[in-house]
Write a structure and sequence with these properties.
With 131 residues, the protein is mostly helical. The protein is elongated. 31% of the residues are buried.
């Protein structure tokens, strides 16, 4: 269990690097903080799927080309969209309250991480009992 969590943390750091890099770059060119957080998060999602399916839950990913694999991708995307909604809401609310968007984003990262890890580990890539 701990090994999966550590691999998930590492994958999340990679996805976060993509997310935050894009977020900060878009803020720098003048994009609204809510839009910048959404674009950064979306690219982080793609990065996370690539890392999660190959390095974290590789032993729980369904075979390519199967309905089960398509279902996992759809559920992974749904979990990411829940994280995106949470991220945009927190950054938007934080900004509206006068909180620096970068601080609001950090809060969103922590809460989104906890939500998506739980969904992905327990539901999407659940460990099936041995046959």
């Amino acid at each position: 269990m701990g090994n999966i969590f550590l691999r998930y943390v590492a994958a999340s750091i990679g996805a976060l690097a993509m997310d935050m890099g894009v977020f900060l770059a878009l803020l720098e060119v003048g994009l609204l903080s809510i839009a910048a957080s959404a674009v950064g998060y979306a690219l982080g999602i793609l990065t996370h799927w690539m890392l999660s399916s190959r390095a974290v839950f590789h032993d729980r990913v369904s075979d390519k080309g199967t309905a089960a694999r398509s279902q996992q991708k759809a559920m992974f995307l749904a979990s990411a969209l829940l994280g995106l909604i949470m991220t945009v809401a927190i950054v938007g609310a934080g900004t509206a309250m006068g909180i620096d968007p970068r601080l609001a984003k950090i809060i969103a990262i922590i809460l989104s991480f906890l939500l998506t890890y739980a969904l992905r580990n327990i539901v999407i890539f659940r460990q099936l009992p041995p046959v």
